[in-house]
Design a protein that fits this description.
Layout lengths: L3 H20 L1 H12 L72 E2 H4 L7 H7 L10 E3 L2 E3 L31 E10 L5 E6 L7 E6 L4 E5 L11 E4 L6 E6 L6 E6 L3 E6 L4 E7 L4 E7 L2 E9 L3 E6 L4 E6 L7 E6 L6 E6 L3 E6 L12 E4 L4 E6 L6 E5 L3 E6 L5 E6 L14 E2 L5 E6 L4 E6 L4 E6 L10 E4 L7 E4 L4 E7 L1
InterPro entries: WD40/YVTN_repeat-like_dom_sf (IPR015943), WD40_repeat_CS (IPR019775), WD40_repeat_dom_sf (IPR036322), WD40_rpt (IPR001680), WD_repeat_DNA-damage-binding (IPR050853)
Pfam families: WD40 (PF00400)
GO biological process, one term: regulation of DNA damage checkpoint
Amino acid sequence: MATEYERKRLENIRRNDEMMAALNVRAKASLLTAATKRPRDESTKSYKKKEKPETPIVMRKSLRTRGLDPDSVGLPYWFSDSPKRIPTPPQQYSSAPLQKSSVRLLAPLPFDKAYDGEGSCKKLIETMLPFAKKSCGGKMVKGSVKDENDDSPMSSGNDYLKKEVVKPEKIEFDGEPLSLEPHNVARVVPGRILAVKFMPCQNVNLVAAGDKLGNVGFWNLDCQGEEEDDGIYLFRPHTAPVSSLVFQQNSLSKVISSSYDGLIRLMDVEKSVFDLVYSSDDAIFSLSQRPDDEQSLYFSAGYGMLNVWDLRAGKSVFNWDDLHEHRINSIDFSSQNPHVMATSSTDGSACLWDLRSMGATTPKTLKTVNHSRAVHSAYFSPSGLSLATTSVDNYIGILSGANSEDISMISHDNATNRWISTFRGVWGWDDSYIFVGNRPSKGIDVISTKLKRTVKELHDPLMRAIPCRIHCHPLNVGMLAGSTAGGQVYVWTPK
């Protein structure tokens, strides 16, 4: 039975329904609902994304506004800051940046396939051929090929082997002993230089440079003023950055190159070919030879591995898988004791090793120099009595003493970026000075090992980029080469 409240509720519902029916409220509500669900007009459709133009609009920004050094990227591949060569348009320059599809050639590479320069490399072959090793057992003496039974240098029709050059015996940096001339500036390779070396010959001024694109360029500074040949010869024997260049000790016509592509090639001028010496799936970060052994190659591949390769037998004779915890950046040997080897590593250490007592499994170091960050080089001085290390922690270490017991750290700004090669301090022509790049001033700092500080800065308006990798001519005192991220080489000479 319904309650009084329920009867009143039902009565109110009935009256409300009668009132809504009299006002036709439900019919108007249906019309309003139908109107809201009506299809929209084409002009009121949801917005579509605008199609991108076929040619994207590039907003140009300067390097300075992007927080980069204005000169850190280097110059375009086709640019030449030297009147020696007419710039080649970018679309015609064959040494473009490597693509991921670059395929390694696991075979000898003839000169005609590897040569990527202008003109011909015939003059380079004629220059280097007289320094090939003679079959009768000749040997190199101060840059000239001499027979053991003959006191006269082998001419082979080349007058430059006979000329006498007067060079200073020692360079002091209390004044301005070196100068940079316009004709000693040239772009040798198109990419960033990682390795630069003088040919160790007193009477031929030849520079070799390897860049990040796999190119190896040669520059004969003696071809000054020649219209037919500017002395620059470009080859491309690799498909990745060239990590090291080594001139064969007793046959300077042979140049060994290693690369991040995992290949080691031997440039043989006599055969006009880049022979394949070694191949690996691991990048090769450094390569060197002992002063008394030209048949063995010491190189690092992958992370921490050191391999000893016999050129004559064509096989590995020693292999250490974990000499360092990270990649080995440099390998060098003492001239005083060729059995003593120095290695530097990204693991923050530089180590001295005795090859006679390293063992096959767990080699022990003679001495270790520790830095707080990666060490990119460890080089012996000309006498073999000192070692210089260069680290990203902004120190250059000096290891000296009869038993390598003295370690000193010299403060130096070694900071670089991804666009320029890391700094590596190199020794001069004796144990007095170390040369290393200066990033802010685009110069070369001269560090006195006696005073433990920078005593001089080599700087010239002609040098418009940072000389990251440096090499001092081993025989011509006062001749120094600095190389840049733009592929330029600057050669300083005595005043």
